[in-house]
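Supplementary Note 3. Input sequence used for the single-chain structure prediction.
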Amino acid sequence: MTSDNGNSRQQKIERIVRLSQGQTPAQVDAELSEEYEIKPHEIEAARAFLDTVKLPQYKAMNGILKMAIDHPRQEIGMAVLMHAMGITDETLFYGIIRQLTNAVSKDQSADIGELNAAISTVASIEPRDNLEALLATQMATVHMAAMRHSRSMLTSESFEQLDIHERTVNKLMRTFTSQMEALRKHRNGGNQKVVVEHVHVHSGGQAIVGNVTHGGRGKKQRGAQSHEQDNLSLPASAAMLGYVEADEVQMPGASRARQERVQVPRGKGRSAKG
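The predicted structure, written as discrete structure tokens, is reproduced below.
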């Protein structure tokens, strides 16, 4: 590919981006006539924008909400929206659209821009089933309510109003965080995986990795009990703090001359070492 072809492709990308932002063809031609070299990161951003799947949007026509679909068949456009929102039931889909419409309505009139933004918010969460679609819808409405009250904080005329909006915003944001946690638990079955990457063992210490089993004290015969007492299991804390030498635990941290020896508990019938 020649340099001219490369520049021509860049200009086409730039033209498409500007037209999608609402500029008229005359404005685009006037701005592109000026010499400007598109930077590599701008090219990547434009390509990512062009590769993004555009969802069908709603628009108001004669006071009635009607779906504007970039497809010759209305039912295909609806199927694209349902798939993006994780909905498999047509009745549920229309119900969620009505609920979102009511949530963004102002003065008994729907805000079409807010409705489309709410639908995109639900789709961005990538619900995998109807239940996740319901939770994603709640998350979208909670987010919009939090932003609405955040705006009201800036226009508060008294400390009382400011306090009300501030507390409401805090509650909504905490609710949103709880919803995120609920979605995480639903997706991974409620299990939380903790990965330990580094274990530090200082000089004179030992680390136990895995399950620690303590010696039992069940009812056994005298001979078996005597044998068990000769093989007592140390508590996990003792093994973690120091090391075992014969029947005693040597505690780290003191000099060799001042080291104290802690005796291991013995069963009945045997005397402790002096």
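The chain has ten helices and seven strands. The radius of gyration is 34 Å.
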